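Exercise 3.2. Students should predict the tertiary structure of the chain below and write it as structure tokens, then compare their answer with the key that follows.

Predict this chain's 3D structure.
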Amino acid sequence: MSTLTRQLSGTHETLRTYCRRVEIPLLGEVAVPPPDKVTYYAGLGVLAALQVIEWPLALVITAGHLLADQHMSGLVKGVGEALESA
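Answer key:
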């Protein structure tokens, strides 16, 4: 298997992972992250709730991970364009 084939295969697996979607009344259709990511975010929430870390820090970490995980969607591109035009 060539390097290019491996990269394309990995990309396909990533797309399949984020194909699970949930309809939320006010937000519309939202991609559901894989269970390991949900566990990570829940862990951050627990740490913030127990005041091990401050809640603004938990929000910044979560936002950074969400943006990094969603690099394949147009969300990051749209936010970047909106910030550039502001």
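Discussion points: Residues 63 and 69 are 10 Å apart (CA to CA). The mean pLDDT is 76.
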